[in-house]
Amino acid sequence: MHSSRVAAVVLRQFYLIRGSLSRVLPLFVWVAIDMVLWGFITKYLNAVAASGINFVPMLLGAVLLWDFLVRVMQGVTMAFFEDVWSRNFLNIFATPLTISEYLGGLVISSIATSSVGLIVMIVLATSLFGLSVFSSLMLIPFLLLLFLFGIALGICGSAVVLRFGPASEWFIWPVPALIAPFAAVFYPLSTLPQWMRYISLLLPPSYVFENLRAIVSGGAASESALLWGGCLAALYVLLACRFFVLTYRRAVRTGLIARYSAETVS
In this structure, what DSSP letter does residue 106 have? Predict the structure, then answer.
């Protein structure tokens, strides 16, 4: 893997973002709206609830972490979609660029774009609503685990679009919403029926949010559970990369990559 080729992929994304206000604003506008909206909801719940529970770290913290995962996934898929929309695949893969270098560029681009959103969310949540749970060192494993899983989702989603064509990108946008109920973002796993819990145990985010609630409740995080979630996330990244490579090879072998068009979903 040549770092200069990876940097070229990242540089292309930088030029695209720098030259378009419509690409810059989504990096922080939607997460800022989420923070403000959920921030006021949690303040209202604190005002009317008689239980004495502080909903700010419990709900607003969960929203922040979940939005970070979504931004990581979208950081990969949006960078990939730029090549989809511009019909740029033949140009890219006619060069010596390898799949690992291309994916590496997408991941680094996602790190940059999701970091912008994360900084905005933390600043708003701490300055406006007093969110302090993220002063804990547990923020690091939480973010790392969610980052790995978001990368896996982004690469897997990109492979699906590469296989079925640009029109299939609409299958990718709902993925976070479909996963959220099983990830138990806003409620304990014990709330779910048994069959949903089995699926939840296979999703790394569920370990993050369960430990977040444990910390907010005055308990301690389970290091073994986070380690298991991290291993699952790393495994999913490897499987997603393998899936993308196999999909790319099939697209080249069958000539699909040369027939890529917005109407192709087959």
Answer: H
**172: Cα separation from own chain's centroid:** 12
> Is 265 within the bounds of a domain?
no
> In whole angstroms, what is the distance from residue 78 CA to residue 158 CA?
9
Structurally, the chain folds into a number of domains equal to: 1
263 is a domain residue:
no
User: Residue 181: which domain range?
Assistant: 3-258
> Within 10 Å of residue 253's Cβ, how many Cβ atoms?
9
Which pTM does this prediction carry? 0.90
Examine residue 264 and state whether it is found in any structural domain, yes or no.
Answer: no
pLDDT tens, position by position, 138-172: 778 899 999 999 999 999 999 998 888 777 888 89
* C-alpha span between 246 and 224 (Å, rounded): 33
The answer to whether residue 213 sits within a structural domain is yes
Q: pLDDT band for position 262 (50/70/90)? A: very low
